[in-house]
Design brief:
single chain, 348 residues, alpha/beta, TIM Barrel, eight-stranded parallel β-barrel, two-stranded antiparallel ribbon, 12 helices, 10 strands, globular
């Protein structure tokens, strides 16, 4: 393990005023989103859409790294230049999602366990040799009267830790993503308490596995009310509750934390990211780590809708992505304003 290299890459990913673009959807998930918009579900259509995202002009002004899935990692632009090389040419770091998705956990109704450890060392070595510099593994936790169970917490946390150790062995920075899902009618406080428990368990297993924390990035949910919660919660309240949760359970030595967007709308995710950074980052400097974004649908959904599978719509779709990136970049500064949404395109 080259600790200096891992730490350096993690710092590059967490550079100020930039975030991560997560375009690592599985083929079934991507196809489902295509189908909902009447887009043909083929390998070439998925490749065309990913080319649209990767070739968006000046994306490196707001994006430090892109998370790819196995299919897109091996795809190329129509002229034959690989997506990984295109990202490298733009000074964007290429990463790869390496988990094999979630499955029902035997004996624990409603809970999931993430698969993918079989053959992982060899896959990581292959991805690293082809230009990947970081990887991602996601575990999910549902909230209910009796969930998440300790068995589910330990099982997923142990696998996250094993994955992280294997990544670092191969020279890849692991992004560890334990997501507490928004599904349900729970309160923000309930989400915060469960997220604390998840983080406590995950970092316990990371310590046991001797993972180098200075070469690791945490991708985590905000402390959010459930998608079916009865009462609205302000962005400022979410910011305070989220950061309080992180301060209680995340070691200060981490190079950074990236928030996932989960089930939030693009505007909600940006507003809440802005509230967090306006209150706690920058000149306030009241947290020990940079706080950024690693959004998927909150960046992609309006882009996908604008494209709709039509080549004539590529430029418009890329302009919408530029707009969303600019909004989130402003949120990293705590300077985002809702009226920015009134303009379709913002120049970098």
């Amino acid at each position: 393990m080259n600790e200096q290299r891992l730490h350096s890459t993690a710092l590059e990913l967490m550079v100020a005023q930039k975030g991560l673009l997560a375009m690592d959807e599985s083929i079934p998930t991507c196809d489902a989103r295509f189908k909902a918009l009447g887009i043909e579900q083929t390998v070439d259509m998925r490749r065309s859409y990913r080319e649209l995202l990767i070739t968006t002009p000046d994306m490196n002004a707001a994006i430090s790294g892109v998370i790819l899935c196995a299919e897109s990692f091996n795809q190329s632009r129509r002229d034959g230049k690989s997506f990984v090389q295109l990202l490298s040419d733009a000074n964007i770091i290429a990463g790869i999602k390496v988990d094999a998705g979630t499955k029902d956990m035997a004996g624990f109704h409603g809970e999931k366990v993430t698969l993918g450890l079989d053959g992982l060392r060899e896959r990581l070595q292959s991805y690293a040799s082809k230009g990947a510099r970081f990887a991602k593994w996601r575990a999910v936790f549902t909230m209910g009267p009796f969930t998440p169970s300790q068995a589910c917490l330990d099982s997923n946390a142990q696998q996250l830790a094993l994955y992280a150790a294997l990544c670092q062995e191969c020279g890849l920075v692991p992004i560890v993503e334990p997501e507490t899902l928004m599904t349900g009618s729970h309160t923000m406080q309930k989400c915060a308490s469960v997220t604390e428990l998840v983080l406590e368990t995950v970092f316990h297993h990371l310590y046991l596995q001797r993972v180098f924390l200075e070469g690791l990035i945490l991708k985590i949910n905000m402390a959010l009310p459930g998608s079916e919660a009865a009462l609205p919660t302000s962005a400022d309240d979410i910011a305070v509750c989220t950061v309080k949760t992180l301060l209680r359970r995340v070691p200060a030595c981490l190079p950074g934390i990236a928030f996932l967007s989960g089930g939030q709308t693009p505007e909600q995710a940006t507003q809440r990211l802005n509230a967090i950074n306006k209150t706690y980052s920058g000149h306030n400097a009241s947290v020990p780590w940079p706080l950024t974004f690693s959004f998927s649908r909150a960046l992609q959904q309006p882009v996908l809708a604008a494209w709709s599978g039509e080549s004539d719509n590529v430029i418009t779709a890329q302009q919408i992505l530029e707009h969303r990136l600019r909004c989130n970049q402003m949120a990293l500064r705590g300077e985002y304003l809702p009226q920015m949404e009134d303009t379709a395109v913002h120049e970098f």
